[in-house]
Amino acid sequence: MYDVIIIGGGPAGLTAGLYAARGGLRTLICEEKVFGGQILMSYEVDNYPGFPKGISGMDLMDNFIKQAEKFGVEMNYEGVKSIEDEGKTKYVVLSNDTKLSTKTIIIAAGASPNKLNCPGEKKFTGKGVSYCATCDGAFFRGRPVAVVGGGDSALEEALYLANLASKVYVIHRRDQLRAVKVLQDRAFANKKLEFIFNHVVKEIQGDKFVNGVLIENTQTGELSRLEVEGVFIYIGMTPNTKFVEDLIKLDEDGYIIVNDRMETNIPGIFAAGDIRVTPLRQVLTAASDGAIAASCAQKYIEMNF
Ligand code: NAP
Q1: Which domains, and CATH codes, for the chain?
Q2: Among 169, 172, 182, 216, who pairs with 150 as Cys (CB 3.0-4.6 Å)?
Q3: Ligand 1 near 229 CB (within 6 A)
Q4: For the residues 201-212, what does the mean pLDDT come to?
């Protein structure tokens, strides 16, 4: 039996793994895609403390992985189909139907930003296309950028980018924003923001990096091009909680509700990082969550076994 099985190998899962294994717990991390998580998409991370010259998302996560491995974390590349709670013993069912038993589980499977699925989006991710203005906005100081979406996230991040970029186009598919009024008022008052309503992005264009977007007027079908060097996509996020929705308490948007010890509604099952209800989704906050979850899982084991 494992002491802790961590689901997800991003910053939260890898940090939880490091803390758990360093604390002497038999620890497994299951990651179905690639260890490192969403931050791998960031060309450079310059707000993770300790790296004053900045570091690429890939290099940062490589360090996270090496540090977790150093303390003996086991890692596998299996997705998780479901988890089962039988009191003291819990089970993690892998996509290959292997059933593993464990004393505790830390769910750190993250959230995925919704994609536009237009030509150029994948090609230029990390090269002008971003899903995180806080992570990547500073690279666009003095340059024109576009934000796609009309919700709270799009407007909050457009306002953040207005402090850095020379111009921020907000491209929205309707003529009414979804964002709350207070944000709309602030956004309309900001001279750097230009709203392009009733338009959708047909293609993200560029050479090595983004140099423009092709947009279509949804009323007339007319195509036009905006010269921008960054495209920030905020069309909603989907937390990766489908596989636990019958067991774990979620909020109305599907994020896991935890207390300040990262405990879910089920004793011995914790959640950390982007998958939980939280006001900030960053590598730093995910790592912090992972450390708390692992340390509280260890205390849970000491009290119950
Ligand atoms: P959201 O509210 O779901 O808004 C997504 C936006 O993207 C909508 O304007 C939607 O257009 C647009 N959109 C969706 N799919 C699209 C597509 N394929 N192409 C073009 N546009 C598309 O998402 P969110 O802004 O990330 O917010 C998620 C939740 O977090 C919300 O409940 C929000 O209130 C909350 N939030 C709160 C705060 C805060 O309180 N400070 C900050 C951020 C987010 P339509 O409007 O036409 O559907």
Answers
A1: 2-112+237-304 (3.50.50.60), 115-233 (3.50.50.60)
A2: 172
A3: no
A4: 98
